[in-house]
Amino acid sequence: MQMAERQVAHRQDMERIYVSSQALTEGRGQLMAFVLAGLALVLGAALVFTNHSGYGFSLIITAITALAGVNVFSRILEHREAGQRRREEIGPAPSE
Question: Which domain holds residue 77?
């Protein structure tokens, strides 16, 4: 009985570590994306103000498009994962 209790405690510790590391990784990714997008927008604006408007607007539009694409892609993945979790909770469909 004690072995099972230790095993459950170990499993809970491992899950807690995994969840906290995932949250930390996601936070770092969001910070890096914010910095890169901000840098691209600032550089694009600097190019526009230094009479390189074609390059500047291209950089700004590319940065905005990349951010929108990542947002759409992450929402699609979240939707798929939620559907998969629902299917796992419900169980297999009855066969006829």
Answer: 2-90
